[in-house]
Every structure is written in structure tokens, then in C-alpha cells.
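[Solved] Which block belongs to which protein?

Original post:
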Amino acid sequence: MEPTQQPFIAEALDRLWAQFLPQMEERVATLEAASAALAAGTFAMSQREHANSAAHKLAGVLGTFGLTKGTVLAREAEIIYSGEPDTDPDAAARLAEIAAQLRVIVESRK
């Protein structure tokens, strides 16, 4: 890539980030709500599916923007949600921690 293309690509990525930021924030909120419901014992199958989907989508989009740690965390959440987190006593705490870290990652990229 030529040096003159780098600013253009960075600007394009910034525009895309701004465009998709509301969706990413909504997906993080979905993960926060799911971990809270799991901790409270009110976690439903539909919520698990929604959280799994949100984690999957976050993993992909965060990687696109070079946020590798976010991708790794979102994939971990996706794996946990694809199992049966409601039977794992440590799952709620770990999922809450992942959601909090993802919130920081998304907020710091703004």
C-alpha cells in the first residue's frame, strides 16, 4: 500500500466505525443484559440465542477494525453462550466481565 493511501483508508474506517457504532453499542448492551439476567436467574433461551448472535457479530466487526482483543473476548462469549451458561456457576461473572471489557474497547475507539 502506498503511503498516500493510508490516510484515505484510515478516514474510511473512521466513517464506517461512526456508521456502525450504534449497532455495536446495542450488541454490547445485549451482552450486558444477558449476563445480568444469567446472574439473576432469569435467563431465557431466546436471550441466549440473541446474546450468542450479538457476540458473533461483534467478534467479526471488531476484528475488521483491528480490535483483536475485542474479537477474542466476543468469541469467548459466543462459545459460552453456545453452551449452557445457566448451568455453569462461573459463567455469569465471566460474561459480565467480558461485556464490561467490550464496552471499554468500543468506547475507547470512538
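(Second protein starts here: sequence line, then its C-alpha cells.)
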Amino acid sequence: MGEERRAELARRLAAVRARIAAACVAAGRDPADVELMAVTKTVPASDVALLLDLGLTALGENRAQEAGSKVADVAALRPDAQPRWHFVGSLQRNKARAVVAWVHRIESVDSARLADALDSAAARALDESRRTGPLPVLLQYSVDGDPARGGVPADALLALADHVAGCRALRLDGLMAVAPQAADPDAAFADVEAAAARLRAAHPAATTLSAGMSGDLEAAVRHSSGVVRVGTALLGERQLASL
């Protein structure tokens, strides 16, 4: 069964990489400039281990409790691997301390209160030598301004960026966004691209743009995304119930 799953994941990975490469060619971009992140929420650690075997090291999780146990399980399965765990979902402030010990980057900062909680937790992790440097974060941008979907609206983006930049234990790396389901992807990602440009103008080091998923990665690549977050196209239907 393990070899069959590895072969399936290898086929899916090749197909997703081919889509990214084709999108880059169509957009006049270098495929090396677009990173593929596997969104591994609700899939077993054994799948993550196989992805690591296949050379994919950027991994996205969106549930703090599930992710924490999975990080440990994957470390036991592949002790020599060097996965980079990204938190891509809504994060409760009271989970900040647990997450900062293992996360490579938080991609869903959408409020000053969350930034402050992460800053405090990251500062403590630095003081206790559980981290070796500031915690990289992306601001989650809201295309439609719907608070139920998370994200900072356009008119509050730069104020939040300034706040994060002033946090001693955080490092502002850029922007993350999800296109609303009912939206035209090109229109949504054109808005995201413009927001990312505004952010870079104010904070030149904030160069990362993470946008695009299984169904709309081509449109995101057309609009300058440097990271695409792919779950279903890579892993198929989820193997575990969401926690």
C-alpha cells in the first residue's frame, strides 16, 4: 500500500509541477520563481513522509492541535528530513505559544492582537532558545473585506504592516491571500497583486506573495504569486476527518 501511495503522490506531484511550469511559461516567468507548498491538513503523517521523500519540503497546516502532533509524528518517521512547516489557517491567540516552537512561517496574520500574541510567544521562544531568529509572518489580505473569511481589508493593510514591522520578534515577509469562491480569479488576484505592490512600497523587504490553490493557481501565477498552496490536486480527497 505504501508503494502504491508513493507512486500516486509522485504522479500527482509531477502533474502539479507541470501546471505550474506551464503557467509560468504563459506568464513569461521562470518556474523556479514559484514555490509549491503542499497543504497537508487532515492527511496522515505517512503521506507527509512520502512527500518529503519526493523532495517537497514546504508544508501547510491550518489546525494548531492537529499540526503539533503531526510535526512530531513526521519527525519520528523522517528524523533526517528538514520540512518547513507553514501555518496557513486562522490562528487563535491562545495557541500562539504552542505553534511558534515548530512553525517556519505564519501566513495568516490579520490583526494587531494576533501579531502581538505571536510577538510575545516568539520573544519567549527566542529567550528560551526554542527559536534561533525572528518569526517570519505574512499578512493575510482580504479581497472582499468579509470578516467571516479572515484577512485584513485593503484600507487597514498598511497600518497592520507597520504594526508587525515594529514587533521585535516578528519579521514581515509579505502577503497571503485566498480568492473568494464566487470571484473571478483573475480579478481577485489582480487586486492581491496590487495590494502586494503597496505593501512592498512601504516595506521593501516584504517580497513574498502566497496566492493560488488547486483550482486557481494559474491565475495566481499570472498575477505574480511566488508561492502556490496545493492540497486536493496533490493529495486527493482528505484521508482524515478535520479536527
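Accepted answer:
You had them paired correctly. Confirming on the second one: The chain has a mean pLDDT of 94.
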